[in-house]
Amino acid sequence: MDTAAGNQFGPELFRAHAARLDALRARLGRVRVTVAEFERDQAAFGRLCGWILTGLEERYVRHDELVAYVEETFVLTVHGLTRVADGEQRLADFLGLPDEDTEPVPDEPPRSATEIVDGVLETVSSREWVEPQLAEAAPVAEFAAPVDDTVAALRAAGLDRAMTHVSALRQMLDDLTGMPDVVAKQADLWTGMAADLRAIGADLRRCLDEDLGAVGRPDVRAYLALMANNVEALRGLDATCTAMTVITKAAGDLILLTRDIVRGLIGDLVARVIVWAAGTTVVPLPVVVARLATVVATAWRIDAYLTALVTSIANLSQSIDG
Known about the structure:
It contains 10 helices and 2 strands.
């Protein structure tokens, strides 16, 4: 007689197996609660870029639907195994097999979700989606040249003054920044879900092997083949969460990098203006022209960085939409 995990094959084994599946189902329900915690407002990434990330809302909804689908298969399986244990239905009938002795026909293996997500991760990690203007930039790039303490103080004070009294500049940075704490929380939520789904998938695989892996009946093998699809689905959801963690962090980091660069440009320009205004001598026309050129060049550089950011986030958005 077949045995599994040291227990005689029969109704009690089906009941114990169904109980373990039900515990896994409850854990999936808690994962769905996590999905509901996401901030659905794409403005968390800033008004300048949030609207570009068109796939975010759809990704949250789709992820919840997929988790719910796996959860529902657990519910149906638990109910079916309970009926089998109570003698109300044969396992072969629950599985829809035409005959109890029929061998399961393996499906053609589809492309693994993990393989698809690996391609997304490679694309994001390569940073080819980042425009050249920002690809090698760093927050301190605009302050690379050493300055004395007076100029450094002017930069800091000038930036603070500009942000306090020039509402247009303050609004621009607010629109650019978004809500970094919300973005960080979203990345953490994706990371946590990935860990939960990975653990549930591993526990399901272990549950199947320990409870029924040693049973050689065709209907049991068909059941194990069916449940293996759920193991693969959980692995795919884990991989998707991992990819979304990377994409979310990449978007948030690039937005904050651009914000720091723009702040640096503004601070440097205001410091120059303060120095110019403090001068008491008559300024020759060529010097005035040069100073105006500096202001125009700074404005152009800010616009170039913002344009590069928008284009980069649009490129990244394609990874979400896919």
